[in-house]
Amino acid sequence: MSAPTVRRPRARRPVRRARLVASAGIVVVLVVALVLAVELPSGGRDHPSAATVQRYENAIIKPVKDWGSVEILGMRPSVKDLLGGKGTLPPAAVITESQAWVAAFAHDRALIAAVRPPVGLGPCRGLLLRALDKYVEAARGFGRAASTPLAQRRPLIESAITTASDGDKLFDQASAVLQRARLAAGLTVSPDFPNPQLSTP
Fold first, then answer.
1. Residue 34 forms part of a structural domain
2. What's this model's pTM, rounded to 2 decimal places?
């Protein structure tokens, strides 16, 4: 009489192990995809898209232009007024104007700060805000000069001019960041900002 045949249980461990490995692989893929979605919201690019750049520029262009008009039409002519040129505004008028410049720059700064920049344009906003801080300081400097006797004004005026010039340089650097982002996105150089080739990175 032959020995009874004993059925051996099927080896299930390798199958279970394979399923665990496959499941772990899926989890890893999902995690990597999530990280990329968070780190690269521009669809995997290391720079914003053309539409995103234009949207940001459109959001900040109005306060930037207002800021420029205050500087060119208000602050620059005040130098002649403060030096006591013929037919210039009296010091009291310059003091009042300087207060209006400070308020205007502070308002423009708040508008620019409120706009969230896309990936790659954070430095642009930071430089713009630092530039406006310089202009606020310069406007206050012109106000102090206006409240100082004529014979003692020149050093205060020169200091305010230097501060405004520092603001100009920061603005040029911010413009360079924006212009390079435009070029990287396939756009042409914006006429509303200095050319990056003429600006310091």
1. no
2. 0.74
